[in-house]
Amino acid sequence: MEPAVDRLKAGEPYSTQELQRRNRELTILNHIAEALNQTTDLEEILSNTLAQVTELFDLQTGWVWLLREEGVEVYLAAVQNLPSGLSSHPDLMEGTCYCLDTYRAGDLNGAANVNVIRCSRLQKLVEGSGGLRYHASIPLYAHGKKLGVFNVASEGWQQLSPEDLRILYTVGDLLSMAVERARLFDRSTEIGAVEERNRLAREIHDTLAQGLAGITLQLETAEALLESKASPAQIRVNIEQALLSARQNLEEARRSVMDLRAAPLEGRSLPEALTWLAQSLNQRGQPQIECHIEGGSQPLPRRLEDGLYRVAQEALENVVQHAHARRAVLDLSIAAEQVVLEIADDGQGFEPGQITPGHFGLVGMNERIRLLGGTLELKTSPEAGTLVRIVVPLP
Predict the structure, then answer these.
(1) At 107, is the pLDDT very low, low, confident or very high (cuts 50, 70, 90)?
(2) Are 390 and 369 in contact (CB under 8 A)?
């Protein structure tokens, strides 16, 4: 008999039985794809897929083996309705087995090999197998890299139909993509956490540590003046300077803690968050900050929005605390190819080659933008104001 697809090309219609089979296949794959798209949590992905497959194929149990990302050690990543003999003897679900050895040898690499295999773990059970002796082994690959094996079983199973094998192989492909996506998401989250820890470490070193060093120096000077029987007025100058530095560092510490407590944008879009930031800083007095935004309706990746907001926040704090400016302007322009963020002020400026205490945040800003794939340009000179220009290309 000609394959249905060949008959369709020739203008012959599907039979009712073929249409029902196709509809069943699409329904199964659609249910599983929907379940996989609901989360990026690896544990949920595996448990959802097991539940969907066992229900839609009217199966009894299933489990998933995954290779750790180093690609050496195998671990049991998820189970569904294990028979009592296996659940009460967890040692039987450790180590290697026939299907894992076969998979590692590269023999489970195609739809023809997704087949019913006599389970070497179930063979070891005298009782408590739930009538199970065989399972189907579905290999999981991502770009040719081995991810693991997906096993499903049912009592009295003999042989899967070619159609069921094909659907299970496609399910394996969907699950493999979901596993790889979840791992990539976890890695990106870890990278983001590392970047944030590095930023905080730089901030503590560049501001709090520098400030504490300055306080220590002022107090040591006051102590020396006291021992030399200097006038109280001289000693008071150093003590007042130390107190002023202590208050500034306390404020800086509070700001860092607030950064840790809350998400940068607090549910706002980047344009909304920047507008709110400018308004909140304006309540503190000079400088008055104007906020101009173009292309604000275009959505941006959340990581990019967070990074740009943090840089704008740091740059405006520098303006407020150190620039002695009367006016500052924040310009955000979002185009199809790139995002441009500019913060300019009419303050006292500084010599870029001689960064004074309080401007160390520029190092962290530059590194943050570099990690976003962009560039940061600084234009400033004494008594000529400062311009920070950031350009980040969009994919």
Answers:
(1) low
(2) yes
Q: Which homologous superfamily does the CATH classification assign to the domain defined by 265-395? A: Histidine kinase-like ATPase, C-terminal domain (3.30.565.10)
Q: Do 350 and 378 meet the contact criterion of CB atoms below 8 Å apart?
A: no
> Using CB atoms within 10 A of its CB, is residue 24 exposed (0-12), middle (13-18) or buried (19+)?
middle
Helices (H), 232-323: 232-261, 270-282, 302-318
Q: Among 111-115, 195-199, 276-280, 390-394, whose mean pLDDT is lowest?
A: 111-115
Left if phi > 0, otherwise alpha if psi is -120 to 50, otherwise beta: which for 12? beta
**What does the block give as tokens for 354?**
């001689």
The domain spans of the chain are 4-186, 265-395
Q: What CATH code is assigned to 4-186? A: 3.30.450.40
61 forms bridges with which residues in the sheet? Answer: 153
Residue 390's beta-bridge partner residues? 341, 376
Lowest mean pLDDT among 168-177, 311-320, 321-330, 347-356: 347-356
Closest CA to 32 of 177, 163, 158, 184: 177
CA-wise closest residue to 275 among 260, 289, 291: 291
**Residue 264, CA distances (Å) to 13, 200, 233, 277 in order:** 58, 14, 45, 11
**H helices then E strands: how many in the chain?**
12, 10
For the stretch 280-309, pLDDT in tens is 888 877 789 999 999 877 778 888 888 899
Q: At what angle do helices 42-56 and 162-203 cross, to 10 degrees?
A: 170
Q: What is the pLDDT of residues 137-188, one digit of tens each?
A: 888 888 778 888 888 877 765 556 777 777 888 888 888 888 888 888 877 7
Contact 325, 286 (CB under 8 A): yes
Burial 263-302 (b: 16+ CB within 10 A, else e): ebbeebebbebbbebbeebbeeeebebebebeeeeeebee
Q: Is the pLDDT of residue 10 over 60?
A: no
